[in-house]
Specification:
Blueprint lengths: L2 H4 L1 H20 L4 H22 L9 H8 L5 E6 L4 H17 L4 E6 L3 H10 L6 E5 L5 E5 L5 H9 L2
Parallel strand pairs: 1-2
Antiparallel strand pairs: 1-3, 3-4
């Protein structure tokens, strides 16, 4: 598990706050109340971004259910995420659009890697960076894997690959 990747949003926010303090207070010698106001604004922006964009909870309750879904005759889109991963937050709108468009004919499994189910599935599928996206065809065979969401063409290929 790569801690820097999975908590990148928190680390970037902390780095931005520290950089503002260093630049304004140490380098430019700006008065402390102004620095604190600027830092407060940056903190508010990061918190608002986290609330609005974070992936949220997964929809997988146990490992066996997810393995059964992958092998049930429908193509499956499996998305692993961390709520604190910058890439996961950035790709959240794309994952939502895939879910909305392909949900009826696809199994859409979203797995938070910080849960026990997420840790178990991460061991089964052997990866260390989030986000991780995997496509399975109707036979339950893995046909595609990457750190960016699949294209429409790749999603359609999973429906036709047997």
């Amino acid at each position: 598990m790569n801690i820097l990747n999975q908590y990148s949003y928190v680390l970037i926010a902390a780095g931005a706050i520290a950089s503002i303090y260093w630049l304004l207070r140490i380098q430019l010698r700006v008065r402390l109340p102004i620095v604190m106001t600027m830092q407060g604004t940056v903190i508010a922006v990061f918190i608002l971004g986290f609330i609005l964009l974070r992936p949220g909870a997964g929809n997988v309750d146990d490992v066996q259910t997810s393995l059964d879904a992958i092998d049930n005759g429908k193509p499956t889109f499996l998305a692993f995420f961390s709520n604190y991963c910058t890439g996961c937050i950035a790709f959240q709108p794309i994952v939502e659009s895939i879910t909305a468009e392909y949900s009826p004919e696809y199994n859409i499994l979203r797995v938070d890697i910080h849960t026990q189910v997420g840790r178990d599935l991460r061991e089964i599928y052997d990866f260390s960076f989030t986000p991780e996206f995997i496509l399975f065809n109707t036979n339950g065979e893995e046909i595609w894997r990457d750190h960016i969401p699949p294209s429409s063409q790749q999603l359609q290929q999973a429906q036709t690959t047997n």
